[in-house]
# Entry
Amino acid sequence: MERFCKVALNIRNLSPDVAMHHMVTTLRLGPFADSLCQKPAANLDELRQRVTKFMQLKELREFRNQARAEADEDKGKENECLR
# Structure
């Protein structure tokens, strides 16, 4: 998103509609692109807000998965010590 915004700033008289169209069509397939297809963003500001929320959610999921893996690893070590 940041790279797209930097490039978009270098284009003179770039229409927000054109920028939005190209941004959405170049997204990788996945949950975020799916959510945009279901409920398109009204403007670039809304798109930026949704990107930010999606990134925060993704980071939270990764953190939880890592915490679970560490907890499972610790339980495995405790079980080995009890044997």
About this structure: The chain has one domain: 2-82.
